[in-house]
Design brief:
Elements (H helix, E strand, L loop, with lengths): L15 H5 L51 H32 L9
Length: 112
Amino acid sequence: MKEETKPMERPTREPLALRLAPRCLAKTRAGTPCQKAAATGKKRCRLHGGAEGSGAPPGERNGAYRHGLYTREAIAERKAMRSLMQCFRQDARDALSELDATSGTRPSRVRS
């Protein structure tokens, strides 16, 4: 006997808004994607870290905090210093090439 699909009846008892909600992006232990709806404004469901207040506290309030080497501020500071040093190196190269072009000789390097 052929089974009819009725357009006005849903095959599941899930409300339409829940069926259309974005799904959790977490993977289960079996490697399949989680089938729960993601928490509002999050990419994970409440079971996989999308709940309000989930996650470790930032900074020293986190028990694993030791030295701050990998904090956002420290990483940003190192990145800024790296770009500043690259600018200085490029300026030094440019100055040396101008000196070579004008005098024809390059000063000898003194290594310490």
